[in-house]
Amino acid sequence: MNSPEPTPSASPVNPEAQGQEILEEYRRPFWQNSKFWLGVVSLLILAAFAVVYKRKVMDTAMTAADLKAAVEIFGISSQWKVTQTVDDADFKGVILAPEVTFRVRNVSRRNLSYVFLLGVFRFMDTGKTIGEGYQMALREPLPPGAASPPLTLNPGFGYRATSVAAFEQNRENWRNSFCEVFAKSHNSGFVQLKTFYISRKIEGLDVEVEIK
Predict the structure, then answer these.
(1) Where are the alpha helices (DSSP H) in the chain?
(2) 33, 126, 132, 191 — which has fewest CB within 10 A?
């Protein structure tokens, strides 16, 4: 019968040697101290986070009043254009919708970015909504004094007729209309920028439709 093997005993801890190891960590030059570099890395991470937060949140924070004061709208034009061709059993023709095009200039002292534009198209006589057009503009920051490329808003809804020429022939049924332009940037909330009158010019025709 085999006798059980003796259980190895743990080596005794030398408190003096352990203390010397701890002291040695503090005796090293600071650039050789692992705790020093851990602290440096932590500070660098916090600094990078602070820079990103400032650029993405603090520098872009804008109130509705700030946004309204920062945006200048110019180069305005408007027309009606075919947005859809319909070929249903009860109607065959086209849908003509209003459209506004304009440019935006940044007249503030800081970059302008991620401006959400909303155009509400209405009839003048009743105020009834024709439709809404929207666009996310200025994905790249627009520096102070710079201008955007042309921006277009179109609701996609409007009049129906058998052809574009039929709109000109049916001029007595045309009604004056306008577009209210609203904008929002980051956390600013919506603000009304401008109201445009919609011309009666039809895309592809040289003259405006005149109402008699």
Answers:
(1) 15-27, 34-53, 64-70, 164-169
(2) 126
Residue linked to tokens 């705790």: 35
User: Residue 27's Cα: distance from chain center in Å?
Assistant: 55
Q: Find out whether 209 and 174 touch, Cβ atoms under 8 Å.
A: yes
Beta-carbon contacts of 151 under 8 Å, excluding residues fewer than 6 positions away, are 101, 102, 103, 104, 117, 135, 137
Number of alpha helices (DSSP H) and beta strands (DSSP E) in the chain: 4, 8
CB contact at 8 A, 130 and 158: yes
Tell which wins on pLDDT, 49 or 177: 177
How confident is the model over 197-209, as a mean pLDDT? 76
CATH architecture of 64-198: Sandwich (2.60)
Instruction: Choose between 210 and 45: higher pLDDT.
Output: 45
- What does DSSP say about strands 159-161 and 92-106: parallel, antiparallel, or unpaired? antiparallel
Q: What is the pLDDT of residues 130-142, one digit of tens each?
A: 999 999 999 899 9
The per-residue pLDDT for range 46-74, each reduced to its tens digit, is: 656 545 444 544 445 789 999 999 999 99
Report DSSP letters for 6-68, one per residue: PPPPPPPP-HHHHHHHHHHHHHS-GGG-HHHHHHHHHHHHHHHHHHHHIIIIITT---HHHHH
Residue with tokens 């309204």: 68
